[in-house]
Amino acid sequence: MVETVVDWRPFEYFTVEQSMLTMPVFERITFRLTPTTEGGTHLEVREWGRTTGVAALDRPIYRFLLTKVYPTRKMLEILARLIEEDRASQAEKEGAPQPAAA
Prior knowledge:
The protein has helices at residues 58-69, 72-95, and strands spanning 2-9, 13-19, 25-35, 41-51.
């Protein structure tokens, strides 16, 4: 896969273009970061893709890739779970007695 950053605004968003070397697929993905009122960050991911084949097949091929080959939604759900686990672990550490300084 070849990935090129095409637009980048630190702490706000970045956009990448990806092309597959083994398949005729091109996609553009924007990751937008927005602060939340709770002090966290909301991540929004927007994807657009096409194949270089027959236009009528673009949507079914791209849908197949996003659900079966690169299951983006599942990967983001795993990321959210890992973030929550890390957040809970940090809260435990902050609530636990700190070791005395030597």
